[in-house]
Amino acid sequence: MMMRMMMLISGGSIVSAEAVWDHVTMADRELAFKAGDVIKVLDASNKDWWWGQIDDEEGWFPASFVRLWVNQEESTMVETVEGASPSPSEVQNGHAEASPSSSDCLCLGQTVQNRDQMRANVINEIMSTERHYIKHLKDICEGYFRQCKKRRDMFNDDQLRVIFGNIEDIYRFQMGFVRDLEKQYNTEEPHLSEIGPCFLEHQDGFWIYSEYCNNHVDACMELSRLMKDGRYQHFFEACRLVQQMIDIAIDGFLLTPVQKICKYPLQLAELLKYTVQEHSDYRYVAAALAVMRNVTQQINERKRRLENIDKIAQWQASVLDWEGDDILDRSTELVYTGEMSWIYQPYGRSQTRVFFLFDHQMVLCKKDLIRRDILYYKGRMDMDRYNLVDAVDGRDDDFNVSVKNAFKLSNKDSDEIHIFLAKKLEEKLRWLKAFHEERKMVQEDEKIGFEISEYQKRQAAMTVRRMTKQKGHRSVPPGYPPPMDPMNPGQYLVGDGMEQSEFEFPEPERCKSPFWQSFSRLTPFRK
């Protein structure tokens, strides 16, 4: 069919395709597009990479990222030369196969493929992309990574870890996954294949992509730095030629795992669309789709958190009299912040503090008496060692004081108790919600082994030092989106004395507020 398509193109037919997925380009000659874009196919002689045009831009793009539409119910996506006689054809996502009775033209208005054939097409596409993906992973591991490890004069262990991350772990996992897919693949009648269980059996393994995706930005930065040296350009190009890889730069190959994990929910959604409820694979595909959507959602969430670590390090640098370990040694997210009264046994004296709740720890700060925008470090609490206890309004037996809008943190290993008093009931409920979110976040991180690498910590520290040097004084963190109001999803919270409103990203320029209020505008509560 590839030859048939080329005959159409060379004969003057306009062959168009619709992008099913976004294509992020890494090489100069690639064509970037978003899902839904219409691409004019100019050359389909290579079964994996086609040459196409969008408006005035031309370039290479992966055939598996598009589909040719020939049905009236979808859209007028393939046009023929005037006067050409129409004939039926069957088109797969990215690869077309015409029936024996078809002419050299792809035409519109033909009968819609039956559901079984459509399901077979999606199954075949999944199997095809998996096999090609395995080859890409093999090329990265054997063509690049293995050769880089031999050149100790050019790459140290830290550089290799940053550039390639856990690519070998992904390669091993993916080979096992594809072996199981092949066992479930029905070559004679692909529509009868039951691949849903494979995704469910391997669902925990897909979490290894989180580490790779989180590291990818650092990998691009390191490669960009190395590529300024001509030696590295020639070395990577030599590796590509020896391994006989397609003409894409190394950063393009390293992007494929990021694209792949994001593609699974789209493929499974397409498969579920053409799977009848009576099919034995239906409930497994539906469950697999939910699992893979959750995986990609959590990966995106953790990537967002890593993008905030510079701001956390910058905030710590702005707090005076800091003592002990850095925040980033244990934490990656500011969950909630606010000002409350606090009583701690055995002292029993009420004090006003500004509290910053991170995952694993809560930092206590005191405002400067004159400069209210300056904070002093006054300690921290290890949240892994405390239980949250709600307190009813009235006389508290532990502290022998009257309390209102209060809650307690009780040490699991001792009689130590802290009581916190919010100004309003709504604020107390927000804090209770925040502590719940903090524990949930910690459990999810432990499940997938999420943590900040030493390289990322060093980069954050370097960023803070550079910004501090440029300003010539203490660094002031930039504004953040505010935490989402747990009592009213969709609304956001700001510091005391500021109106509540909805925020849009990016945040517009505005006068600087006290930095502890700016830092409170962090990530919204997750629903």
TrEMBL record:
Interacts with GPHN. InterPro entries: ARHGEF9_SH3, DBL_dom_sf, DH_dom, PH-like_dom_sf, PH_domain, SH3-like_dom_sf, SH3_domain, SOS1_NGEF_PH. It comes from Oncorhynchus tshawytscha. Residues 1-17 form the signal peptide. This is Rho guanine nucleotide exchange factor 9. Residues 79-102, 466-486 are annotated as: Disordered. The lineage of its organism: Eukaryota, Metazoa, Chordata, Craniata, Vertebrata. Residues 333-440 form the PH domain. Residues 12-71 form the SH3 domain. Acts as a guanine nucleotide exchange factor (GEF) for CDC42. Promotes formation of GPHN clusters. GO terms for molecular function: guanyl-nucleotide exchange factor activity. CDD domains: PH_Collybistin_ASEF, RhoGEF, SH3_ARHGEF9.
